[in-house]
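Fold these two proteins, one after the other.
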Amino acid sequence: MKPLDMGERTTRKRYRQKQYFVGIFAALLTVALSGCGPGQGEPAKQAVPHHSFVSHPDFAPPPMDITPGPAWRPDYEESTDLLFLTPIFETDTPSSGAMIFDSRGELVWMVPSDPADPTDNYFDLRVQQYRGEDVLTVYRGTRSGGRGNGEILILDQSYEPVASVTTAGSLGPDKADFHDSTITADDTMLIASYAPVPADLSALGGPEEGMIKDAVIQEIDIATGEVIFEWSATEHIPLTQTLLDFDVERNAQTDDEEELGTEGKPFDYFHINSMTEDHEGTILVSARHTSAVYRLDRVTGEVIWTLGGSASDFDLDEDAVFAWQHDAQRAPDGTLTLLDNHARGTDDQGASRALRLALDEQAMTASVVTEYHPLRERSSGSMANAQELANGNMLIGWGSQSHYSEHEPGGEVIYDVCHGESCYPDNVHGRGTSYRAYKAHWQGQPSGPPRVVVNQTEDEQVAYVSWNGATHVAQWRLIAGADEATAIPQARVEAETFETAFTVPGNAQYVGIQALDAEGRVLATGIPD
């Protein structure tokens, strides 16, 4: 795979609005010019609006539509924690890719996907710890049929790769799936993969000599790439535990698809979507297609218990029953959190929610501690996650619904943010779903300087500056003059948006823009190429 390419106030407020409305104006203009669209009185479909930047013309992130909830307080808008997303759009703009936003919805950092490269898809961007330092981890690779083959990149605070983790041993390289990657306290990483293996599917209504996707977990030593532990679903979980109806899946296939359960289209009976460390060195695994969570012995691989699904070892209260879930995690207080999709494939099969469950592992019972619901009922047919924050709040990524929301410990909504087609009327399309959403503290210091572009018109010169990924910039200062030696400060503005614009004195031959921290110290200086 290719290297990762990182690569006054009134005036600024006007410019910020200009950025926001570039995509919206383009979409509305196209609607006006296209008339009634494909049907009488039916407007044509338009792409999701997007931001545009002079200094980064390759960046086209979506705007963030923030709706306060009942638990909203103004200080949430001033939070220094950042949001981490990997939106996927089905149109040329906005950009798909890995993105970081601040609490006001302003872009902080991004690396866009190359739509011409099938291996350049990004999933699951988040902050983890490696060798005692904060790092970013993100999947890059293919995506097809709800699975992927690729690698997990580990980036330092300058956004430079420090390691790449992928499958090894029996699976070979570059088979890491995009659903999850967990760095452990031992600086290893838990990753998942799918391997086609023969299986008798007759009990499910499929061929006797069929093929399935075996769900495999590997624990990889990050420094060496060696496999420390490997677990196979087919060795421990019977095919009959699947809740995926083989006949229904087969009948839903199109004529040009390979027959289900064959080498060309193995049946995905299990489908791992999270694996994390649990107490006493065990592993928690969430399997979507069995609607169950499994606790595994780290040494033998044996299943210690099963929660949910058709073979549950727990008696679940009626309101605790979940289905097609994602992201099972053990919380610090011993409860278990997950995202209960309660729908599969489409977004109209059931209301989704996040859950906190109390597990009595002596009596083997499970009950609801907290439910987390959106402002309005929302059905997420795929993807999604629930991240418990350090203050006890819950950050929920709604997966196939292009939203994330934060909730108080009791479940009340603090805010809900939309970042895709569901923010707009029905004539806007392009999706914009993010597999997961995370919130975390992150300090970024890019290795290169700020990027500066100067545009000359008949009336004026305007300099545009941005510094992709920088989190310490408090102000920008324009310096200009006849040359670098005689250049003097001309203007200073607050750093409020991803890109800042300055009007340059007409006689300036040298232009530089300095990034200043909160104490006024110069962090770096950018000059035009």
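Now the second one:
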Amino acid sequence: MTTRRRLSDLLGSAEFARAYTVVALTAVFSSFTIEHAASHVTLATIIAVLCVLGAWVLWVRREELSLLRIAPSSLLAFLAWALVSIVWTTDKSSTAFGWMELFGFAFLAVTVGHIRDTLQTVRALGDSLRFLLLVSLGLEILSGVLLDTPFTFLGIQGDLAVGGPVQGIFGSRNMLGFVTVIALITFVVEWRSQSLTARIAVPSIALASLLAFFSSSPTVLVLAAAVGVVAVALAIVRHAPAERRTIVQWVLGVLVALALAAAFALRHVIIALLDAGSDFFLGPRRVPLHLHQLPARRPPSERAERLLRRPAAAGHGRTRALPPVRRHRHRPIVARRERTTFGGLRLDASHARHSRCGVDVRELHPGRCRVVHAGPVRSAGRPDEVVAREHRCRAHRRDPDPAPRTLTTRRALGGFRTAPGRVELLAAPCGPPSHRRLHLVTHAPFDPASATIVIVTYNRSHLLTGLLESISAMDPKPGHVVIIDNASSDDTTDVVESFRPKLGTEVVYRRLETNTGGSGGFSEGMRTAYELGSEWIWMMDDDVEVVTDGLAKMGKWAPRFKSIQGRRYDYDGSEFYWQYRIAERMGIPIPFAPSGFDASGFKEMNSGCFEGMFIHRSIVRQIGLPDHRFFIYWDDQMYGWLASRKTTAVIVDEFVLRRTREIKQWDMGIRHMNASSNAYRFYIMRNRAYIKNYYRVHGNYNPVLFGLGTSMTFAKELIRLLFVERTVRGTSNLFRGLKEGGKLGRDRSWTPMPALED
């Protein structure tokens, strides 16, 4: 047999036809990814090669071809109309290349239609979409849950952690919605035709449904409704008597025409009901923030001028709420012109920070936000022209801009003047009125004596000794050191008393009657420090040491932030990686959030760790004490999350602590996974119920996402058992924790920790 004959047999075989169909469908549906990951030329090359192979296959199978089956008449008419458009287009070359690309896709469809029957095409389409949806879900999990990093070249923002919308590898949420609807139909047909077993078909349907849900696309609803209507119409026609079938078809046709006309007439209402205004808006995707010069009724006040002439602003300032912003029914996002006046400045919008560099307006909300910076008067051009910059950020989560809320410190643009007019800033806030504040920043230098170190210890006097020795060597020292003894049975009391005269600061020692766990200890320590009148509270376990200038390093950031986390050295002197961000709706840490710091020296966080949390009194007053009911685990994460809802919480690039206890761990490169205990395993799962209760109170609970987070937590603990502790014993504690947590989650009498009063 000659080589040509063997090649012809291969191209004409059923196996090659199946492989060709799968590859062609995969290339078509992943065209966005191919184009953005490689280039448009790469995509064109792949389509061209597939077209050449398709032409060769059709030539080999030429005896099977029929002129009437070459292509549907509607497809030929569409291609002809697209080709004729070259006559009146203003860009003939682009139109020609676009038509060639369109022809390539059409030729692939014709080829597949000739070499595979309907059921075989459905099977190939199902295999292709299963793979692409799995890749989409995997990339969304990697971006939003594991790395907290957007994949900009694919447009993936990692919004899975906050409930979407997601787009996978298809370029937009609407395209993902379109693909998921096709996938659902395909998977159901595969199942009903017994092409696949339920073991594969059911997970496939669940996968498509999950991505359809997270896409938040109105396309899903529209297509689902259309498919439902078509299915009902076909069922009616099928069950109609033969003599009445023609009449039924005409009636259905008239009803469909009337429905389409009504849909077109009411399109604006339908778009508003589907919240799809941004999807059908043909202008810029981002909502504009407008900057206006208003006529001056009076010049800026003397106080405002003094504030504007000061150096870079620092301190805490004062806060007052702005009027609420309403949403109009038929517009995606609209801000009402509500104003707050300070001196000569008049500000519209959600949140403003005032300094010599200008005015920042931003939305403090767990979802998306907009930031506008009104910089100085330009040195050239119109004398009253104001420079405006718009930034897109994700509050309490992350932002491509390393410092989304400190634009004035990163862009020192000089003095800001409002004369001869005032500046009005219009924004489109997304959060509730309770999150909108006007902050006028004032100076408040850090005083080390206003800080209190809170230590919680339990039967580890040898570790406590090392910590107290490091505090005695500190310069500067805090005003107080509060030590909470969780009913230790060793010589902890004697150790504390031996350090009292040489520590160089006031020691407050409290021994509890029972062991309340780390949660109870820190709750009592926070209460004690608060009652002492401390402005800053620095919490830490007994298994760390403080670097000599640790308090000075933390105090350097105190004028700018109110919830600060420093960095730590591990037991072996390496850099300890702490998971400073959580996937908020899932309630779990993001394992590999970016670890590097930029020139700003800090990263925004939405979590907390009692091994080094440095928090201001005003935040404690608002969110209350740490919840002692956790006993151990998740308590500091929840407290840090609550703090991040009240202020900009940050982790700073300052090493201030050193761990002094070696823990068995699994080195995973950027981070380590530590060993735990049966008690930890129980509370890890049980305390998920407390997180759920807090989320309910704050309107952040999503049962699907939170359940996914609980499942991932369970899986992580199994991995910890296998790879760190190298055993399978202890899983019963995970199940016990889940069972107990279920009871706590159903307790409707539960209330969060109350706010404090001075």
